[in-house]
Specification:
Blueprint lengths: L18 E2 L6 E2 L3 E3 L4 H14 L3 E3 L15 E3 L7 E5 L4 E5 L4 H10 L2 E2 L11 H7 L15 E7 L5 E5 L4 H7 L8 E8 L1 E2 L2 E10 H6 L1 H7 L2 E6 L5 E10 L8 H25 L4 H11 L3 E5 L1 H5 L7 E9 L3 H14 L8 E6 L14 E9 L5 H12 L4 E2 L9 H7 L3 H11 L8 H7 L2
Parallel strand pairs: 3-5, 4-5
Antiparallel strand pairs: 1-2, 6-7, 7-11, 8-12, 9-10, 9-11, 13-15, 13-16, 14-15, 14-18, 17-19, 17-20, 18-19
Helix pairs in contact: 7-8, 10-11
C-alpha cells in the first residue's frame, strides 16, 4: 500500500489556510499558499518567499505519512502545475509537469499506446510527490518511479531554473531524482516509457511458511511478485504479475467489484472499525479476512493491474532491507505478533526492488525487500511500529521517506553509502536552508 488527496487547505494564489495529509496525522498552517501554473510563476513565488524570509515546501496530494511537505512558510500547491508537455516516441520518453497526478499520466499514456515500466499501487499521487519520496511498486528487474526519470527541471533557492539529466548538470540529477524537496522544487519531469503491454495477474492464497520458504524462487521466477501476510494467522495472499501475449481478459465487472471494492474496501473498512472498537475481536476477524479473497487470474494493461483503489485510511511504516534479510526479518515479525498483546487488523505487505544508483533511494546499491506494516487510522500504532522498527534496523533497514519512522541523520548516514554526497549537494544548492522543515532537519541534519 503506498503512500496524495489534500484535506483542507486553499489553492488560491497568495492565500493561506490549514493543510492536512491523507491520513490526517499531519497538519500544517502555512503563512502563504500559492498554486503556480508555470515554471516562471513557481520561480517568482520562491524568489518572493526568499525576500520575505519564508521557508518553502511543495506539497503533492498528501499521501506521505511523514511531515515531509509541512511548513509554516510558503506552501506550493500542485493543482495548476499539471499536464503532459510532450511525448517523444523516438526517445521513448514523456515530459510532464510536476503536479500532474499519476492517474492522469497513466491514462494519457495509455491513450497513446504507451506505459511506464513499473509503478506503485495507487494513482492519486502527483508525479513529483511520488518520485521525491521514493514511491515504488514491486519488481525483479524494474525499479521505482524515480529510477525511470531521464531528465528534470529544478527551481533552486534563488529562483534559478536548472535543467538536469545524465548529460546536463549530472551531479544534481543524481540527487534530485529522489530529493525529498531538499534541493529545490521540481517543476517538470521526463520519464522513460515503452509501448503499452499486457500483464497477467495471478492472485492466490498461500501459507506463510510456504511463501517464506519459496521466497527467493518466487521473486526469481516472476517479473513482479508481492504478498500480504495477515497477522494472527499463518495465511498470506500472493500476487504475481508477468507480461503476457494476451488476449486481454480483465476481471468481470461484478467479480472485480466484489474483490476490489466490496471485500478490499467496504467489508475491510467495517472489519477495521469493529477491530478498533473491540480489539479482542481482531484475531478472529483476521482469520476470516485472510480467507475471504479467493484465487483469480486476469490480464489487462499495466496501470489497471499494478494499481488498485485504497479507500480505507491507515497509517504506515515501511522499511527497505537487504533482500537476503527478508525471511529472517519476516519470521521475527511473526514471532513478535504471536508473543505480544498487539492486535493488528491490517496485513503486512512485502515487495521487492533491484538495486539502483540514486543516492537516497531505499534500494540504492543493493537488491531490496520492502516490509510495510499498517494500522487503521485512529488506532494506537506507536508500540507496534516501534517494535517492528527495531527488527528492521537490526538488518540495516532504510525507512521509506514518506512513511512513519523515528530514524535520524546519524542513523541514515550509516545505512546510505552516498548520504554525504547528497548532503554536500544540498549545502551547495540550498546553503540557507530555504527548503528545510522539521522533517528534513531530522533526516538530513542541519
Amino acid at each position: 500500500m503506498a503512500v496524495t488527496d489534500v484535506i483542507g487547505g486553499s489553492g488560491g494564489r497568495g492565500s493561506g489556510g490549514p493543510w492536512r495529509n491523507w491520513a490526517g496525522n499531519v497538519t500544517a498552517r502555512p503563512a502563504r499558499t500559492v498554486a503556480p501554473a508555470s515554471t516562471e510563476e513557481l520561480a517568482a513565488a520562491i524568489r518572493a518567499a526568499a525576500t520575505d524570509g519564508l521557508p518553502v515546501k511543495a506539497a503533492g496530494t498528501g499521501h506521505s505519512f511523514t511531515p515531509a511537505a509541512a511548513t509554516d512558510g510558503l506552501l506550493i500547491r500542485p493543482e495548476r502545475l499539471t499536464g503532459i508537455r510532450g511525448i517523444d516516441r523516438a526517445a521513448g520518453t514523456v515530459t510532464v509537469a510536476a503536479g500532474t497526478p499519476l492517474k492522469h499520466l497513466n491514462q494519457t499514456l495509455s491513450a497513446h499506446g504507451l506505459s511506464l515500466t513499473n509503478m506503485g499501487d495507487i494513482m492519486e499521487q502527483t508525479v513529483s510527490g511520488a518520485t521525491s519520496t521514493g514511491t515504488h511498486g514491486t519488481g525483479r528487474d524494474s525499479a521505482s518511479i524515480a529510477a525511470q526519470i531521464t531528465a528534470l527541471e529544478l527551481v533552486t533557492a534563488d529562483g534559478s531554473v536548472l535543467r538536469c539529466s545524465a548529460e546536463e548538470n549530472p551531479e544534481v540529477f543524481t540527487g534530485a531524482r529522489l530529493g525529498l524537496g531538499a534541493l529545490g522544487v521540481v517543476s517538470e519531469l521526463t520519464l522513460a516509457v515503452e509501448p503499452e503491454f499486457l500483464l497477467t495477474a495471478r492472485e492466490e492464497p498461500m501459507p506463510f511458511d510456504e511463501v517464506t520458504g519459496r521466497f527467493d524462487e518466487l521473486v526469481a521466477e516472476n517479473e513482479h511478485f508481492e504478498f500480504y501476510w495477515f497477522p494472527h494467522t499463518g495465511n498470506c495472499n500472493t500476487k504475481r504479475n508477468n507480461r503476457s501475449q494476451g488476449p486481454a481478459a480483465p476481471p468481470g465487472r461484478v467479480s472485480g467489484w466484489i474483490e476490489d471494492e466490496l471485500l478490499s474496501n467496504g467489508v475491510f473498512q467495517v472489519a477495521c472499525a469493529v477491530g478498533r472498537a473491540v480489539p479482542a475481536a481482531i484475531p478472529g476477524i483476521a482469520k476470516i479476512s485472510s480467507r475471504a479473497l479467493s484465487a483469480r487470474a486476469y490480464t489487462d494493461i499495466p496501470y489497471k493491474v499494478f494499481t488498485s483503489p485504497r479507500r480505507v485510511r491507515f497509517v504506515e511504516m515501511e522499511y527497505a532491507l537487504p533482500r537476503t534479510a527478508a525471511v529472517e526479518a519476516l519470521g521475527a515479525l511473526k514471532v513478535l505478533v504471536e508473543r505480544s498483546d498487539f492486535k493488528i487488523s491490517f496485513p503486512v505487505e512485502v515487495r521487492t526492488a533491484p538495486a539502483d544508483d540514486i543516492a537516497l533511494s531505499t534500494a540504492s546499491g543493493r537488491d531490496t525487500v520492502y516490509v510495510a506494516v499498517h494500522m487503521y487510522r485512529g488506532t494506537p500504532h506507536q508500540e507496534y511500529f516501534g517494535a517492528a522498527e527495531r527488527i528492521m534496523t537490526a538488518h540495516e533497514g532504510r525507512p521509506h521517506w514518506g512513511k512513519l519512522h523515528t530514524r535520524d541523520a546519524e542513523y541514515l548516514a550509516g545505512v546510505y553509502p552516498r548520504f554525504g554526497e547528497f548532503t554536500a549537494l544540498r549545502d551547495r544548492l540550498d546553503p540557507e536552508r530555504r527548503f528545510a522543515n522539521g522533517y528534513l532537519r531530522q533526516v538530513l541534519g542541519e
